[in-house]
Amino acid sequence: MSEPSASSSRMTVEQAGDVTIVELKDRKILEEMSIMQIGEQLNAMVAQADIPKIIIDFTHVAHMSSSALGILITLHKRVREKHGQLRLCCIQSAIYEIFVITRLNEIFSISQSRTEALGDLA
Predict the structure, then answer these.
(1) CB contact burial 19-37 (16+ within 10 A = b; e otherwise)
(2) Could you tell me the mean pLDDT of each successive run of 10 residues in the chain, 122 residues long?
(3) Which pLDDT belongs to residue 114?
(4) Range of the domain at 71
(5) Which DSSP string do the residues of the chain spell out, in sequence order?
(6) For residue 53, what is the domain's CATH number?
(7) Using CA atoms, how far apart are residues 69 and 100, in angstroms rounded to an integer?
(8) φ/ψ of residue 8, rounded to 5
(9) How many domains does the chain divide into?
(10) Burial (CB count within 10 angstroms: exposed 0-12, middle 13-18, buried 19+), residue 78
């Protein structure tokens, strides 16, 4: 059972046991200011956790910039440094193609659904 934890204009954050679930709300993650805000909030979550377990849900996201991908790469590195786990889920096909082209699908653990991602972290 998950419980609401926090929310901002850019994302909703819930806790499911020791897993933090972040649902991105923006359809387009293209502007530098919104990318910086998302990055700061995600990095703060990693900094606060001893061993972070984070799922990022992309259900609403249809477009994202290379800067947003950069934020994810940095986040992945920080989570690994703390021996944590990061899962991405519900990525739409147009964005997933970018992950394949850039070979980021080989770096990130990507699940089809939030339920699958939670199962992977259990």
Answers:
(1) bbbbbbbbeebeeeebbee
(2) 58 95 95 93 96 97 94 97 97 95 96 95 80
(3) 96
(4) 3-121
(5) --EEEEE-SSEEEEEETTEEEEEE--SEE--HHHHHHHHHHHHHHHHH-SS-EEEEE-TT--EE-HHHHHHHHHHHHHHHHTT-EEEEE---HHHHHHHHHTTGGGTSEEESSHHHHHHHH-
(6) 3.30.750.24
(7) 12
(8) -140, 180
(9) 1
(10) middle
Tokens for 35, please give them: 């990318």
Alpha carbons 78 and 80: distance in angstroms, whole number = 5
What does the block give as tokens for 114? 């939030």
How crowded is the C-beta side of 8, counted as CA atoms within 13 Å?
A: 12
Amino acid identity at 85: Q
What are 77's two structure tokens?
């590195």
* Cα distances (angstroms) measured from residue 64 to each of 27, 30, 104: 8, 5, 14
Whose tokens are 């934890």? That residue is 5
